Amino acid sequence: MVKDQTGSFELENVSVTYGKETAVAGVSMSVPSQAVTALIGPSGCGKSTLLRCLNRMNDEIGGVTVGGAILLDGADINARNVDPVELRIRVGQVFQKPNPFPMSVYDNVAYGPKTHGVRTRSDLDAIVEESLVRAALWNEVKGSLKKHAFELSGGQQQRLCIARALATEPEVLLMDEPASALDPISTQQIEDTIAELKDTVTIVIVTHNMQQAARISDRTAFMLRESMEAPATLIEVGDTRTMFTNPSDKRTEAYITGRFG
Amino acid sequence: MSIEPLMTARGRTGRAAAIRRTAEAVTSGLIRASGWVSILILAAIASFLFLNASRALQEVGLLTMLTGDSWYPTSNDAQFGFIPMMVGTAWVTVTALVTAVPLGVASAVYISEFADGRIKEVSKSIIEVMAAIPSVVYGLLGIALLVPNVKSVFGLDTGLTAFTAGLVVGIMVLPTIVSISEDALHAVPDALRQGSAALGNTRWQTVWKVVLPSASSGIFAAVMLGMGRAIGETMVVLMLAGNAGIIPGNPFESVRTMPGTIAAEMGEVVRGGLHYSVLFVTGLVLFAVTFAINLAADLVLERQRKRWSR
Asked: Which of A121, A138, B64, B200 could make an SS bond with A88 (beta carbons 3.0 to 4.6 A apart)?
């Protein structure tokens, strides 16, 4: 099911301010649709903060101001007539630690569609199955959809959270270090899932792990906060292979060759 | 400089260690003792009640009292049936919970999920102050404000009813229900709220579909503890429920409750007499019921704590 080429972001001079402190400044980049864009950089460089701008999850924290423009398929997501709740149906998110709801596997996946008005059992069944298939969890849970989500392993819980996010049919999926709390095998499964998903959904992933960025992403953006006083900025963004083999900025080269961070 | 201070230091360390060990043993002994004291007190209360109740238990019988439908403790052919006051207690408790549970859970949701900063602190302190007001003051307010209104609004002969007392008892158990429900809501991890928000749900949908179900066992425990308090409440009931020893058909009649009966009649009975002993049986039943309710609530709370501390 290849959808239209929707779900592309254009960031123009984006900045994020917490109270008086500017955390991120001057980020301009594009996020192409149906591709994986990785945000890399050392801890505290604003990757997650920038990611949360894309579905306006920063609104949930008080005192955060986002400057510049963020366009989703050409429309400003911070415009006054945009409801962040509606936006988040189009732009889903998977968090660092698996956070399944304390209910059954089925109910976790059906949660989003249900609150958005899907009522008939057969429609829900179909959405649940399709989402679990897309998240590569179906084969492991198809016989036990009534099982409590907490009984799944960590890796399964994270794929359940991916399935849950996919169930609302988002155009974009934001992933904030989705494998950092998982073992290597579960990480591998998540990465395989991401590779499958990118044909149908735009993926923006924050990762600490440069090998992971190199393995799974099409584009990479390197962010850096050069001093505690200055806000984090975007150092370089480009095709992942070019970034990792022939970075144009010295700081990018230093980071990806492991000289700091 | 090299050997002597070392020796001294070692000597001091040895002595200090011995003192520390003794202090440790004494402290832990004291703490253990205070733990046992509360258990002993509880056991003493139970056996004291039982001892004083034993005459009635032998002469009348527990089953006769629990199933008897009339309460004429002072007539020649004395009847000691608990049913009138058990039904009275039930009406007061049901009215109290119907009032307090929706109001209390809604307040807890507001304080935990919607109020921020100052308002949150102020509302929490107000709830605490409510818990500190003596019950007789609630009784006075009930007599002044509620009794005449209940009488006129419902067209009753008297405003002293189970409903009137239940409303006031409901207000009194609010602090218990609010603060324990709020703890339960607060214990729900933020990751779940964020997960729900990220799926395109409003704050309210998140609270209704994720936060409340996640906190349900704690809220259930809050209701149980509130119920325990409502059953045992004495002063307000004595002042507002009308104290009629008949089996009430609905909450708009005068009733007498179990704690109300003990308080009202204990002053008039012959010490050591049968009526005296029957009142102790009433106390024993109350003790057993509230003990069981509190124990159940604690078990539920403990289970919830374990659930989120994975």
From this structure: B200
